[in-house]
Every structure is written in C-alpha cells, then in structure tokens.
Amino acid sequence: MAANPELRAQLEGAISDNKVLLLMKGTPEAPRCGFSMRAVGILEQMGTEYGAIDVLPVLQPLREVTTEIADWQTFPQLYVDGELLGGADLMEEMLESGELAAALGVPQPQAAPETADAPDDGGPYKSPPMQIET
Question: pLDDT for 58-79, tens place per residue?
C-alpha cells in the first residue's frame, strides 16, 4: 500500500523549505522520547537553526511516507539540505567525528557532553513546531 500522497507532499515541502529539519516525537521544548531529547540537545549544542515536526499526531502514516522517501521508519530523523542524515545515534557519532558540524556548516563544538539534554525555552530552532495532518 502506498503512503498518503498529501502527507508525502507536505513532508517533502517541509524538508525542502528547511535547511535543517528534525522529525521528532514531541517538540523541542518538550521532547516525548529520550532519542528525540538527545537529538534536540545535539542540535542545540551545535547552535544551528532548525525546523521541527512533531510526528506523534500522524505517526504510522508518516512512517509509511518516510519509508518511501528515505527507507527509514524510526524517529527522530534529521534532514540537512534535503538529505536524511539519520537518528539520534548517528547524530552522536557524526558529532564526535566532526561530520555533523561539516554537514551543518557550523564550527565543531570544543567538547561534546556525554549526553545532551533538552534545551531551555528560547533555543535556536527557527519556527514553532510544524504540524503535519492527514
């Protein structure tokens, strides 16, 4: 069964409209899973602007769409310049190696904490969490 074409178009539009886009469970201010919290913490540490989408309202249909787009079903998912970089674990590996800073076009942080915590209000994300509806 094919993914919802309207949902796919909305997601593809969000990916192309945001240099950095995080598909996550919850919002940057209130992540709803540990992996999403880690992903937000990494982006906050990098100091980069990003868009965020809470996937929970449309979780299963969105999984079908992301499987078609990038062959990836789990969340969070980080897209940079339209390309899927991966989830929280891959983001951590890329942070440690310097690949994430290079992909984001920002300086490598001096020291990475062992675990990244959720940000305080007022983080660098550039827009309110976006909603995708079916």
Answer: 999 999 999 999 999 899 999 9
Asked whether 112 and 96 are in contact (CB, 8 A), the reply is: yes
Residue 11, CA distances (Å) to 54, 75, 98, 121 in order: 12, 14, 28, 25
111 vs 102, higher pLDDT: 102
Q: Which helix (H) or strand (E) holds 92?
A: helix 88-97
- Cα 69 to the chain's mean position, in Å? 15
Query: Residue 10: which of 42, 57, 43 has the closest Cα?
Result: 57
User: Among 73, 110, 104, 82, which Cα is nearest to 91's?
Assistant: 104
pLDDT tens for residues 80-109?
999 999 999 999 999 999 999 999 999 998
Round to whole Å and give the CA distance between 100 and 112.
12
Q: Tell me which residue has tokens 């990916």.
A: 15
